[in-house]
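User: What would this chain look like folded?
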Amino acid sequence: MLNRRILRIKAFKAVYSLAENPGASLKEILSQLDRSCEATRDLYLFILDLIPAVCAEARQRAEAAMRKFKPTEEERNPNLRFINNSIAALLNEDPDFQKIISKKKMSWDQYDVLLRHIYDSVRASGYYARYMELPEAGRTEDAAVFADILAAELPGNEELRAILEDLDIWWNDDLEYAINCAIDTLKSLGEGRSWDLPRLYSDGAESDEEFVKGIVTKAVAGFSKYWESIAEAAPKWDRDRICTTDLALIVCGASEHAAFPDMPTKVIINEYVEISKFYSTPESRSFVNGLLDRLINKQ
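Assistant: Here's the prediction, encoded as structure tokens.
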């Protein structure tokens, strides 16, 4: 489930934590790493569980409208396509999905205001209108409308972000990635496949778990040495002026090269330069690029 880019981000955050708390042990840092990686999959599950929750909100609205003293013709005979969405029903009835949601105590029940706001926005959208006007809809169309909902309604939703921040500190930067994973699952369900809990790490010649833990282990073991090498490679920079974010990025890149010397140097440098664009200062791109190049070539 976790690709190499997000694994490098997880490693960077673990090393950043070490830079902020140099007394932390390898066991403590690896424990944080494990929690951070597992949290991304948890968020993916929570996002998927939003699908039946939104359909439940739609059903409650329709039932309330039918109970009006004088319902309109549309309220008496509503279009039930969205309410009866087969993907929502599939997730509601999947014992494995419901078991893990229950085990992790995940629920959207207390976030009824957010659900109302999301459903209002969905009903006003063009993709919803097109879906409701289809001559007929099967699993493919049912999955596609929720892929549209996740892509359109969740990124940049500050109300949702505030909820996620309160629920889990590890979810701060993972929303977009979890959404994309959920959309991939919807495509699979739309093609007729059943839901399976995605594996956290993929296997290969070297597993992704070995990859990310190899970077962090090397970083913890050689942190002081890398710090000295960075100071030597940037003599014009006062140690106190090198921001912790840049330090963690450079240490991660050097550690990855040390742990996996067959990984192309250009790939390593480019990856951490890209990460710096999201987590550091505008000047960091060239600084991280230059320092990493010098450190890796010295190894």
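The CA atoms of residues 140 and 191 lie 6 Å apart. If you want, I can go into more detail on any region.
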